[in-house]
Specification:
This protein is an alpha+beta fold. The protein has two domains: 332 residues, DD-peptidase/beta-lactamase superfamily (Beta-lactamase); 130 residues, Beta Barrel (Lipocalin). 26% of the residues lie in helices and 25% in strands. It contains 13 helices and 22 strands. The strands form four sheets. It has a nine-stranded mixed beta barrel. Strands 1-3-2-12-11-10-9 form a seven-stranded mixed sheet, sandwiched between helices. The protein is globular and about 70 Å long.
C-alpha cells in the first residue's frame, strides 16, 4: 500500500519543460502571490516549487479546500453504514432542534448539505447562519429554511460544518481523527491540523492545514478512483458521485464557478473538477489529461490561476512523450529553485529613527486593545513593541527592506505562526512594516505615520473575507517616558 509520488522529467510524460516555465511566468505576471505548486502527470511529479519563505515541509492553510476532505469523510461513513444520504439533518440533533420544525427543515437531507442546496437564501448564508456563539449546530437549525431543499445552489460553509458535526455524532470521533487511519495515514499525510468550533467539532468547511504534496496526493487518489497502493481507500462510486454535477450553479460571471457543483467539489472547464479554497488554494484534477495540479496562493484573483492553466499549461499537454531536453529541464529546475516572494523595496532608513527609538506612544481607544507602542531601531532593522490591555507584550522584529524571520505573538488565530517582516520608509515620517504570515495567504502592511511627532497606525491586509483596511490606532507621544533611558 506504500504508494509514493515518483519524480520524472516533464518531457517523459508529454510536457515540454519550457511550457512549465511559461506557466510559472504567467502566474507571477497575473496572480502575483503564488506560494506553492506541484504538477503531476501519469502519477509522477514533473514540477514542484515553493516561493520562499514557503517550503515543502510547511502545512498550508487550505480554507474551503477543506470541504473536499469533509466530503470524503462522509463518503466513507456512508459506506460503513453510519448514516445515509437521505437521512434528515435534523434527526441527528434532537437536543439542538428548534421547538417548531418547519417542513423545509424537516425535508433537508445529508445530500442537500453536500450539494449546497439546503434551501437557505443567499442573504441567510451571508448573514447570521455563520459562526457565532457556542452552539453552531443550534444556530444552523434555528435559521429559516425559506425554499425547498434541493431547489437551488447557494454556497454554504455552515452546511459543511454540519457534515462534520454529523460525522462526530455518528462515529464518536472528530472529523480529523476519523480520517486519520482511513485517509491521512495511508496517503502519508503526517500532521493534519483542523480548527474546531467552541464545542470541539472540526469546522469542516475550512480550517484544515496540510502540505502542498498532501494536496497533490489527495488529488491523485481521486484521479485513481479512490485507489492508493492497490487498496480501495474511497469507494469508486463515491468518487464518481462527489465529482459529478449534483446541482446547477449557474449563472456566474466566472466560468469555472458555473459548470456545476458536486459533493463539495466544483466542476470546471475542460472536463476538470477541483476542491478550492479562498485566496487561491487548489486541488485541480484533469481526468482526460491524467493531470493533477496543487497550488496555494494569497490572491484576490482566484480565477486567474485557473485561467493560466487553461491558457498555458493545458495546450502544452501532449499525448506522447517528448524528446528529452536537458537544457530546458535544467532551466526549469533553476526557475523552480529560485522562486521567492520579496518584500517591498524602498528607502530602508530615516533620519527620524534616532529621535523615535525608545519613545513610548500612548494609544487612545482602538479596535486592537493596544495601550502603547514603541519602536527600537538597530542597524539591522528594528522592533515594534505593543502593550495591550490584559495581554502579553507583542514584539515584532523587522529587517530593512529585507525579510527578518520571527514568530507571531498575536493570538489566538496567529499565535506561534512563522512570519517574516520587513520595513521601508516611503517618506521620512512614514514607516511601513510588511508582515508576511507565510503558509497562509496573508500579508499585512502596518503604516506608521509620525507626522507632527505623533503616531497614527493603520494596518491593512492583502486579502480578507471582509474589509482589507483593519482600523486605526492614534497614539500620542508620552513626553515623560522613553523606554530604556
Amino acid at each position: 500500500m506504500a504508494q509514493t509520488l515518483d519524480r520524472a522529467t516533464p518531457e517523459s510524460v508529454g510536457i515540454a519543460s519550457g511550457v512549465l516555465v511559461a506557466w510559472i511566468d504567467e502566474l507571477e505576471r497575473t496572480v502575483f502571490d503564488t506560494h506553492s505548486l506541484m504538477v503531476l502527470r501519469h502519477g509522477k511529479v514533473v514540477a514542484e516549487g515553493w516561493w520562499a519563505p514557503n517550503s515543502a515541509e510547511l502545512n498550508q492553510k487550505l480554507f474551503s479546500l477543506s470541504k473536499s476532505f469533509t466530503s470524503t469523510a462522509v463518503g466513507l461513513a456512508v459506506a460503513e453504514g453510519r448514516f445515509g444520504l437521505d437521512d434528515a439533518v435534523v434527526s441527528f440533533f434532537p437536543d439542538d432542534a428548534p421547538a417548531t420544525i418547519g417542513p423545509n427543515l424537516a425535508a433537508m437531507k445529508v445530500r442537500h448539505l453536500l450539494a449546497m442546496c439546503t434551501g437557505h437564501t443567499e442573504a441567510q448564508v451571508n448573514g447570521r447562519i455563520g459562526f457565532e456563539g457556542e452552539n453552531w449546530v443550534g444556530l444552523f437549525l434555528a435559521q429559516p429554511v425559506e425554499d425547498a431543499p434541493g431547489s437551488h445552489f447557494v454556497y454554504n460553509t455552515a452546511a459543511t460544518y454540519m457534515l462534520s458535526a454529523i460525522i462526530q455524532r455518528t462515529t464518536g470521533q472528530k472529523l480529523v481523527d476519523y480520517l486519520g487511519p482511513r485517509l491521512f495515514e495511508p496517503l502519508g499525510i503526517a500532521n493534519p491540523i483542523w480548527e474546531e468550533c467552541p464545542r470541539g467539532i472540526n469546522t469542516g468547511g475550512y480550517g484544515l492545514e496540510i502540505r502542498t504534496e498532501d494536496i497533490a496526493r489527495f488529488g491523485q487518489l481521486y484521479l485513481q478512483k479512490g485507489v492508493w497502493g492497490g487498496r480501495q481507500l474511497i469507494p469508486a462510486e463515491w468518487v464518481e458521485a462527489a465529482t459529478s454535477i449534483q446541482i446547477d450553479n449557474s449563472p456566474n460571471d466566472l466560468a469555472d464557478w458555473a459548470q456545476g457543483y458536486g459533493y463539495q467539489f466544483w466542476r470546471g472547464r475542460h472536463g476538470s473538477y477541483r476542491g478550492d479554497g479562498a485566496f487561491g488554494q487548489y486541488c485541480l484534477v484533469l481526468p482526460d489529461e491524467d493531470v493533477v495540479v496543487a497550488i496555494t496562493a494569497g490572491t484576490e484573483w482566484m480565477h486567474r490561476i485557473l485561467d493560466s492553466v487553461w491558457k498555458v499549461l493545458l495546450p502544452g499537454l501532449k499525448s506522447s512523450p517528448l524528446p528529452e531536453d536537458a537544457a530546458a529541464h535544467g532551466a526549469l529546475e533553476e526557475r523552480l529553485r529560485g522562486l521567492r516572494l520579496d518584500p517591498k523595496g524602498g528607502p530602508a532608513a530615516s533620519e527620524l529613527e534616532a529621535g523615535l527609538s525608545g519613545v513610548v506612544f500612548r494609544a487612545g481607544t482602538n479596535p486592537f486593545a493596544i495601550a502603547s507602542i514603541r519602536f527600537e531601531f538597530t542597524p539591522a532593522g528594528g522592533t515594534m513593541v505593543c502593550e495591550r490591555d490584559g495581554a502579553p507584550t507583542d514584539r515584532l522584529e523587522f529587517g530593512r527592506s529585507a525579510w527578518r524571520e520571527g514568530v507571531s505573538t498575536l493570538g489566538p488565530d496567529w499565535l506561534g505562526r512563522p512570519l517574516v517582516a520587513s520595513a521601508t520608509w516611503p517618506r521620512p515620517d512614514l514607516l511601513e512594516i510588511e508582515v508576511f504570515l507565510y503558509a497562509t495567504p496573508f500579508r499585512f502592511t502596518l503604516g506608521c505615520d509620525f507626522a507632527d511627532g505623533e503616531l497614527s497606525l493603520a494596518p491593512r491586509v492583502n486579502v480578507a473575507m471582509g474589509p482589507t483596511e483593519l482600523g486605526a490606532v492614534v497614539a500620542t507621544r508620552d513626553a515623560g517616558e522613553v523606554a530604556g533611558r
